[in-house]
């Protein structure tokens, strides 16, 4: 099936336009994907920086407080007397430890000094006694979940403070988990007169992380990405609102396919901040951009096709009266002498309409000429007969000769008249 002129023109304009728009959409979508990827990476770094800055600022403040508190605790004990380790004392049923004394004041279940410290500088305080390979709380104001003092409990053997003090008799400052809660702490060795490690001084403050918690809870990366603050054991401390601790822990422990998880260690806290987000959301944003552009491009192409079609119809098809190929073929046939070509119905006043009218008039003129020529040929035949009759009448009577002469003159007149008719018909043929 032949493609119309109008369809060809619209196709030559609209198809390249759609192709160009599609290619542009793909380019813009790729650019959008890169921009979103860059923005997501910048957002991750910004959030990690913010959390780390808050933790660093909090650590700096807490370190100042714990250092000052430790100085006060050591001053209180020093004013009481030199440290020494006495005979074991039962702290709680089944738990005994050497009874450390400062001067003459024994510390097992004696809360005067630790409570005095709290009255002066707040926080928490403990005296640990070294008992074999353990450090037992013999006096403390650290409370257990039931509200009682945590005497008789031991220092976490897997914690950083235990390793530093038990192996090297070196103090430790930093965040530790005490009975399930984070504390910013200072641990310093208690040495006897023979410079032997007999126990540990402890002061600490519950980690004040309200600002960090708020920042993490309100953080959002893309649509479903989130932040997580986890301690050294992997326990989730805080996470973005809408994400459970279990979901956050599962994501950072085993990164799901298609997810990006970045992390950063926070020195001094022994914490880790994680930022997680699905990469698919980057593609979704790019695909949305492409769909918007392509959708708009298709609408534009449709509008353009309607406009081009209207212009072709009004400026080309209507003046021609039909497809240009049809008009060209019809004119070629007529110019070759074929007046029987089928032009079809064409709008009055159009090229094909005028061509059809010319075809009709040429038909009429040619038919008139044919008829005039036939009539002229017939009159010539009669004239020839009249001439022959006139020649034959010369040998006849004068009366017969006169009749033949009159017939000859009449035939000659009709011949002249028919020739004039042919001439007039030919004059009408204006091509």
Q: Return the string of H and E elements.
A: HEEEHEEHEEEHEEHEEHHHH
Q: Identify the overall geometry.
A: rod-shaped
Low-confidence stretches: none
Q: Calculate Rg over CA atoms.
A: 57 Å
CATH topology of the domain at 81-206: Beta-Lactamase
Number of helices: 9
Structural class: alpha+beta
The percent of residues in helical segments reads: 55-70%
Name the beta content range: 15-25%
Q: In order across it, which strands form the biggest sheet?
A: 5-4-8-7-6
Number of strands: 12
For this structure, what is the CATH class of the domain at 81-206? Answer: Alpha Beta
Could you give a short account of the major beta sheet? 5 strands, antiparallel
- Indicate the CATH architecture of the domain at 81-206: 2-Layer Sandwich
Task: Output mean pLDDT.
Answer: 81
Model description:
This protein has 431 residues and is an alpha+beta fold. Helices cover 55% and strands 20% of the residues. The protein has helices at residues 5-80, 112-121, 160-168, 210-218, 245-253, 280-320, 324-335, 351-393, 398-427, and strands at residues 83-92, 95-102, 105-106, 124-131, 134-140, 172-178, 181-191, 197-206, 226-230, 236-239, 259-266, 271-278. Helix 1 (5-80) runs antiparallel to helix 4 (210-218) and helix 8 (351-393) runs antiparallel to helix 9 (398-427).
């Amino acid at each position: 099936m032949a493609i119309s002129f109008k369809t060809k023109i619209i196709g030559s304009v609209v198809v390249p336009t759609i192709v160009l728009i599609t290619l542009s959409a793909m380019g813009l979508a790729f650019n959008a994907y890169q921009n979103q990827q860059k923005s997501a990476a910048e957002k991750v770094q910004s959030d990690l920086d913010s959390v780390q800055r808050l933790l660093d600022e909090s650590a700096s403040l807490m370190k100042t407080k714990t250092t000052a508190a430790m100085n006060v605790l050591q001053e209180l004990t020093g004013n009481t007397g030199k440290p020494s380790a006495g005979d074991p004392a039962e702290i709680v049923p089944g738990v005994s430890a050497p009874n450390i004394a400062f001067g003459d004041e024994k510390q097992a279940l004696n809360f005067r000094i630790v409570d005095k410290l709290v009255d002066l500088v707040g926080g928490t305080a403990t005296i640990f006694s070294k008992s074999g390979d353990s450090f037992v709380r013999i006096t403390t104001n650290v409370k257990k979940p039931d509200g009682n003092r945590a005497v008789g409990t031991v220092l976490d053997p897997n914690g950083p403070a235990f390793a530093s003090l038990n192996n090297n008799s070196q103090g430790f400052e930093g965040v530790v988990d005490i009975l399930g809660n984070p504390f910013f702490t200072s641990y310093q060795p208690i040495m006897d007169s023979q410079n032997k490690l007999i126990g540990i001084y402890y002061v600490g403050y519950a980690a004040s992380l309200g600002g960090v918690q708020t920042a993490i809870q309100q953080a959002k990366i893309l649509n479903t990405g989130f932040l997580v603050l986890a301690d050294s054991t992997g326990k989730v401390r805080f996470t973005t609102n809408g994400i459970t601790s279990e979901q956050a822990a599962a994501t950072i422990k085993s990164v799901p396919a298609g997810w990006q998880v970045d992390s950063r260690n926070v020195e001094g806290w022994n914490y880790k901040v994680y930022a997680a987000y699905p990469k698919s959301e980057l593609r979704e944003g790019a695909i949305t951009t492409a769909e918007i552009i392509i959708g708009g491009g298709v609408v534009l192409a449709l509008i353009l096709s309607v406009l081009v079609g209207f212009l072709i119809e009004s400026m080309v098809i209507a003046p021609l009266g039909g497809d240009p190929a049809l008009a060209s073929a019809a004119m070629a046939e007529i110019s070759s002498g074929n007046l029987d070509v089928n032009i079809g119905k064409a709008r009055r006043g159009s090229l094909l309409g005028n061509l059809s009218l010319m075809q009709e008039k040429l038909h009429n003129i040619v038919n008139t000429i044919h008829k005039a020529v036939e009539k002229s040929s017939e009159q010539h035949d009669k004239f020839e007969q009249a001439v022959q009759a006139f020649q034959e009448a010369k040998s006849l009577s004068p009366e017969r000769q006169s009749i033949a002469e009159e017939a000859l003159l009449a035939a000659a007149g009709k011949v002249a008249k028919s020739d004039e008719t042919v001439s007039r018909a030919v004059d009408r043929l204006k091509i």
